[in-house]
Structure formats: C-alpha cells, structure tokens
From TrEMBL, chain A:
Taxonomic lineage: Bacteria, Bacillati, Actinomycetota, Actinomycetes, Micrococcales
Protein name: Sugar ABC transporter permease
Native species: Sanguibacter suaedae
A cellular component term, taken from the record's GO annotations: plasma membrane
InterPro entries: ABC_transporter_permease, MetI-like, MetI-like_sf
Pfam families, sorted: BPD_transp_1 (PF00528)
Automatic annotation (TrEMBL), chain B:
Source organism (scientific name): Sanguibacter suaedae
Name this protein carries in UniProt: Carbohydrate ABC transporter permease
Family, similarity comment: Belongs to the binding-protein-dependent transport system permease family.
Record keywords: Cell membrane, Membrane, Transmembrane, Transmembrane helix, Transport
Subcellular location: Cell membrane
Amino acid sequence: MDWLLHADTTTEKLLVMVVAILLFVAVMSIILFAVDRPKSPPRWIVTVGFLGPALLLILFGLVYPGLRTIYSSFFDRNGQNFVGFDNYAKAFGQDQFQQVLTNTALWVILVPLVSTFLGLLYAVLVDRTRFEKLAKVLIFLPMAISMVGAGIIWKFVYEFRPAQQNIPQVGLLNQILVWLGLDPQQFLLNQPLNTFFLIAVMIWIQTGFAMTILSAAIKAIPDDIVEAARLDGLSGVGMFRSITVPSIRPALVVVVTTIAMGTLKVFDIVRTMTGGNYGTSVVANEFYTQSFRQNEQGFGAALAVVLFVFVIPIVMYNVRQLRITEEIR
Amino acid sequence: MSVPIPAVKLSEQDEKKASKGPASKMSRIDRRAAAGKKALTSPWATVTAIVIAVLWTTPTLGLLITSFRPEQDIRSSGWWTTITRPWFNFDNYESALFGSSTQLSTFFVNSIVITLPAVVIPITLALLASYAFAWIEFRGKNILFIAVFALQVVPIQVTLIPLLSQYVDWGLNGTFWAVWLSHSIFALPLAIFLLHNFMKEIPRSLIEAARMDGAGHVKIFFQVLMPLLVPAIASFGIFQFLWVWNDLLVSLTFAGGGRDVAPLTVRVAEMAGSRGGDWHILSAGAFISMIVPMIVFLALQRYFVRGLLAGSVKG
C-alpha cells in the first residue's frame, strides 16, 4: 500500500486521488446513515453528525495549532527555553526587522487605497457604456492569475539590461525609459523604490476585485435617487461626491478591509520576485524564511502571531457587524 | 481570508434582481442606458478608461507574446518588435512541459490531483455544517457560529509549524494527504459562512413542508436543499478551485519541492528564482500554470462574481 503515500507515476497519482475522494464519500455516508434512523433520533446525534466532522477539523487544524504557535512564540529557536517576549522584542527592535514592518505597513496602506480608488474610478467610468462587459473582464482577469504568475509577468516588465550599445532592453519599462532618453533602472534591486514596484503588482491584482464589488454597489443605487439628484442639477463630479460615494459606503469599507487583510498576508509576490532580498521583505515572507529556512521556530512563531494580532481589530469589527445583520434577520 | 459582512446586503439585492426575471431586468437596463448617455459624452472619461485598460493588459500580453517567440529572439529583442518580424512557435511550451530539466507536465498532474479533492472535501463538510447552523436548533449555536466566522481571518501562517510537525509525526509530510487535509481545513470557515448565508435564504416553508411529510434532516438536506444550492456550490467551488490551484504557501510547506507532490506554482516560483534569465522557459511555464484557472474563470465568471458579492474573498 506504499503507493497510497508515495505515488510517483501519473496513473498512481490519479488513482490515489480517486481513492481519497471515495474514502471521504464513504466515511460521510456512514456518518449520515448512522444519524438517519427512521425513529426520530435524539437531536444531538443529528447535530453531531452534521457538524462534527467540520468542527473536528477546525479544532485540529486551526484552533489547536494557533494556540500552539502563540505558546511557542515565547520560546527560543528549538522550543526548549522560555525567553519571554524576546522574540517580539527582536521583531520590533532590530533594524533589519523594523524594515520588514515598515514595508508591511507600506503594503497595507498603499494597496487597499490605490486599488480601491482605481477600481472605483474604473467602475464609474465604464458603468453603462457599450463595452462595459469587455472592459471589466480586462481589469478582472488578473484575479484568476496566481500571484506567482503575476510575479513573473511583472518581473518581465521590470527586466533590466545594462545600458550599453548593442544590448537591447527586453523589459518594457526600461525600454520606455530608454525611448525617453533616460538610463535603464534595476527596478527590483534599487532600494527603497523596489518595494513600490512590488506593491504595484498587488494593486494590479486587487483593482479588479474592488471594481467588481463597487460596480455592483453602484448598480444597486435606486434609480429614483439618481433621478432626483439629476433633477436637482447634479451631474459628473457632484453626483459622484454626494450620491455615489455615500450610497456605496458599506461596500467601500468591505473592499478596503478585505484587500488590507489579503495584503497583510502577501507572500507569493515577494517570494517570486525578489525572494525578500534587497530590503523588500514583508512579515509573511519573513515568517516563512525564519521558520522554514533559518529554523528559527520561536521567532517565526512570533512573526505569525504579529500577523494575527494585526487582524484582530478587523475580526472584532466583523463580529459586531455580523451580530447586527443577524439581529435584523 | 475575508471580511464579508455588509456584502451580505449586496447579495440579497443581487438575489432580488435575479428573481425579477429577464423582462423587468431588460427594462431596467434600458432605463439606465437612456439615463446614462452623459457618461459616454465625456472624452476624458473614455481616455482614462482606455489608459487603465491598456495598462492592465499590456504586461500579460507581453509575456504571452514572448512565450511563443524563439529563444534567440527573446534574448536579442523586446516582444514589441514582433510586429516588424513576427515569428511564432510552440517550442518553449514543448521544452517547458517535457524538457528533462523542467518537466512541467508532471507538476501539472500534481496540480490537478491536489485541487480536485481539496475542492470537493471542504464543500461537502461545509454544506453539512452550514445546514446544522441554519436549520437544526441546538444549544450554543450562535456562539459556535460566531467563533467559526471569526476564524476566517486567522492568518494560516499561525497554523503551519504545529501542523507540519503533526504531519511529520504521522508520516504524512510531503504527501498529497497532508496537502488535501490542510487545504480542506483552511477553507472551512469561509465555506461554512458563505453556504450558511445561501441556505438561510431558502424559504422556511419549504423545510417545514418536508418535515410535515415526515422527512428527517438527512432527507431534507439531500432532496430539498441540495438542488436549490447548486449555484451557491458553484460559486464557492470556483473560489476554492482558484485558491487551491494558485496557492503557493500551503504547498510549499506541506508538499515539499519534489516532483512527486509539488504543484505547478511551487515549481514555477522555484524556476523564477533559479532560472531568472531564461525567459523562454519562464514565460511558457507561467502560462502553463495560468491556463486552467483562466479558462475556468472566464467560463464561470457569473458564478464567481456572485460568490464575490456574497462574501468577499480570502487571500
């Protein structure tokens, strides 16, 4: 039965996949069959049958490891000696990691604001035009692309060749600089601007998300409000400022917070484009490097906890909102 | 992972719009179009929109064109020069897919093997759990639901090291099982929340009627609810598909880099580091890893947007 764990041919892999799915279906069927006695079963058995598997997995894979990580963030690299808050002091104290935190802050501020602004602008511009569908797909498509793919696409845009005769630029951005009569730049190497060129990639991905949500919100503004405002002589920027933006405020909040949280955990782009070198690392990337490359378990755990602490305010806000919507129901 | 609350309202509006039927929808769009003539008349608006659209598409287009150019051409000229001397072939794709040093075809299979169970399993579990949250009364339900909901935003980074050591203990590290299990777990909170929202929208009377006929929970779940939930399942299915196929962190941690388990993203990211200058291989490799999600996305866009509006994305 070794192939179940170590499939190495294509056939074996596909077979393992089918086995896994069938196994899962079989287990679920047994559970459901067990709770579906014709004589009405005690309610708790049904509840456990429906809810149990999911809750068990969540406890095993999210809650317990989360607590475990918080615990080990107070220990040294081997998890042997208690070090108190040393790991956190290191994360916030040393220059090297302060830069990581600064970079992360730049990402989390710039990406949500710029992509929401561009997404809103674009949604308003193409709203109700003839090419709306096509225009939206063009902006939207980067969402389907993996961040690894996006990283490679943009790395190619930023590609650098030394400024010499006979050496043509192959990266579009440097070619544009050359056409303008400027020297080509090492966009991904030159600090501190390189972080901004990485941030541009995330903005490129997230603008489509912002546009989609905001466009739907704009379309949901009741016609009579728009009509009334028009009769009052509002149009263009005035209409945008006093009707559109206030009407879609809840959607704006969702978009900004969602993008901020996604950005906080950004890892793939940095890893693919610079590997976190040249002063471009962010917390999520540093977490990976410290935990799995440097084997600094305690410090890696502390960085993960830092990420977690940053999202807590958003969680609290969300739970409050959830309570409100539940009450309305 | 996500922040969905006020979007719930959006989804309801979406729902209403859909239920109005095509006739009223048409007239609404017509009215909008009539009212919106003004938007078209501003040349600046049009120019700005076109500039953004061009900025957004050019990078992808550039790499796509590059992937079809001969290696020599890629090294000696920019992709924009292809207009003057067009010359395309599939050599790069062939060497990226089957060349002994890259062998992306193997990783392509891995991506498929990882993705399918990692989509099916969490959806099934979440459907059952969200049914319990929506239609079974039990003590502590609200607290439990809020807890699951709050777990959506936990960064998966906090779970990786303890999970990894658990998998190592069980001998599962570096196998498909570890990757499937992890993806399923990480998907559950968002899946439960989204599907619960969809489930709540099903009229209570339908469930009550089935109960009157003597149907138990299992029967109600399969015969009454499942058929109505197909669009919701499709929405979340696409999310989860894109998320798993495009994921790097989970696979990097639990699958290792070997060709037995690692998916395309891991391999392509690794190539970007080790073969940074080989744009003929990299460009083709990037598009090999992107083609499936792009097709799925373009074909099922409608469901994807619906899912977005119902609960935002995780990331």
